[in-house]
Structures are given as structure tokens and as C-alpha cells.
Amino acid sequence: MIDFTNHRVLVTGSTRGIGRATARLLHALGAHVIAVARSEDDLAELASSLGERITTIAADVGEPDDRARIEAAVTEKLDVLVNNAGTNVRKPTSAYNIEEAERIMRVNYDAAFDLCRKLRPKLLESTHAAIVNVSSVAAVRSMSTGAPYAASKAALDQFTRYLAVEWAPTEHIHGIRVNSVQPAYIDTPLAKPVFENAARYKQILAATPMDRVGQPEEVAAAIAFLASPAASYITGATLPVDGGMLGGML
Questions:
Q1: What's the rounded Cα separation, in Å, for the pair 207 and 68?
Q2: Phi and psi, residue 211, nearest 5°
Q3: 158-217 pLDDT, tens per residue?
Q4: The overall pTM is greater than 0.85
Q5: Cβ contacts of 100 within 8 Å, gap of 6 or more
Q6: 67 near 111, Cβ under 8 Å?
Q7: Is position 96 annotated as part of the catalytic site?
Q8: What does the alpha-carbon distance between residue 74 and residue 3 come to, in Å, rounded to a whole number?
Q9: Greatest pairwise CA separation for the chain in angstroms
Q10: Which of 109, 149, 162, 233 is catalytic?
Q11: Mind giving me the DSSP string for 89-116?
């Protein structure tokens, strides 16, 4: 049931970390991938590695004009939207300037909100439309990620729950399912600076019952499940991919 043949899927932040793993997995499962990222060079490398069934869009999802370009570029039906693009600056709350905090919110939350709205008509052309938002365990517990990041992910989870209810009983007979995943610490470029701190890395492992950080492919697998017909009766859910971190240690 996890087969994306003849599906068109759009993945933001698709050239690194979780986004890249997701794009590659969905492509391997048969999808035509619409890859969105800021770097044309990185997109070209991804396209070369996949070879076929890929369209690239160079865009910064944190910018309204770029989101409009994404909307204009999606001219056919869309089956899956994965809002994965994210950014962060780790600081104490009092050390942020307002521009940094606003940028985090624009990329992590505003982009997902706006792309869902803009791409809804194309999703409604699908008979099995699904949206998967990439949130974080930081939405529900302190992870030393910084307050703006945590707030943006909490907003994304609540948006997921709200939109799932609003878009389930649409005029379109199939509706649109909306779910999110909550990764904990995953071995990605965004988390690499944290792991370089040996003491902090030890703390992370101590707080994770599985005693390791996650891999991007493990989050991609959860995204693929939620986006697939195998999850056809699941909407409004938030799935932790955290090695047991939310359960806590005894």
C-alpha cells in the first residue's frame, strides 16, 4: 500500500537532511518528485542522482514572492505536499533580535500555512491528497533549540490538527488528510553543531531510550507512511519519531 506510482509529490527543503531523504524515498517508491530548495546547484545534484521523474524549483519558502512562484509552477494535480523546510538560530531568548525570530517563524510556519492554501486546488485534483508537516519534539518539550523555533513548531502542530478537521469534509469527496511528524534529534546538517558539543551530545543520548540519534531515512519512512494510502484513515495526527524521548527515562 505504500506505492507512489503516478503520484506527484512536492517536498520543500528537499536537498538536505530529512527533506533529501524524503525526496529520495518517495521517488524510489514511484513518485514524480517536485523538489524545492534555495540552491540551484544542490537541486541539480539531486536531479542528477534521481535521473527521472523529478522537477526542481529554486525558491526560498520564507519569501512570499517565491511561494507565489512555487504555486505558479505546479500546473498539474498534486497528491502529496511535504512541508519540510526549516531553519533555526539557537540562542537564549533575550539574545535574539526580532529579525532572527521573524525569519524562523516565516520559514518554519508561515511557509507551510501559505503553501497549503496556495496548493489546495491542485491537491483537490487528487483522489488521495495528503499533507505532511515536519514539526519537532521541541513543540512539546524544552530541547534547548531556542524559543522561536519551539514556538514555530508548536504552531505548525496546531495548524495540522485544525486543518485536518477543516479539510476532511470538503466539497471534494475524498478530502485532504493532514498530519505531522515530530522528530527529535536527527543526524542532519541543522543538528550537526549541537552534536559537536560532546557534553550536550551525551545529554541527548541520556534522554533518548534508544541511546542514539535518528537518521533522516527513519523520518522519511514515517512521512511516506502518513502520505500513503496505508494511512488513509489517519488525519490530524502528530507522530513522534524520537527514539522514545517523549516517553522519558525512568
A1: 41
A2: 60, 35
A3: 999 999 999 997 665 678 999 999 999 999 988 888 899 999 999 999 999 999 999 999
A4: yes
A5: 89, 91, 148
A6: yes
A7: no
A8: 22
A9: 54
A10: 149
A11: ----GGG--HHHHHHHHIIIIIHHHHHH
Q: At 21, which amino acid appears?
A: A
Q: Residue count of the chain, please give it.
A: 250
Give the neighbor-by-neighbor strand order of the sheet with 8-12.
54-58, 32-37, 8-12, 80-83, 129-134, 176-183, 238-241
Instruction: Specify the pLDDT at position 249.
Output: 56
Cell of 193: 553543531
**What is the Cα gyration radius of the chain?**
17
Kindly write down the DSSP assignment for every residue of 166-195, as one continuous string.
HHTT-SSTT-EEEEEEEE-SBSSTTTHHHH
What is the model's pLDDT at position 171?
62
Query: Helix or strand or coil: residue 53?
Result: coil
Closest CA to 118 of 187, 36, 199: 36
> Quick one: pLDDT at residue 216?
98
Q: How many helices (H) and strands (E) does the chain have?
A: 9, 7
At 246, list the grid cell. 517523549
Distances (CA, A) of 110 to 59, 62, 115: 15, 7, 8
| Residue whose entry in the numeric block shows the C-alpha cell 537518521 | 215
Tell me the C-alpha distance between 185 and 189, whole Å: 11
Task: Report the C-alpha gap between 47 and 42 in whole angstroms.
Answer: 9
Cα dihedral across residues 127, 133, 134, 135: positive or negative:
negative
The residues that bridge with 133 in the sheet, in sequence order, are: 83, 180
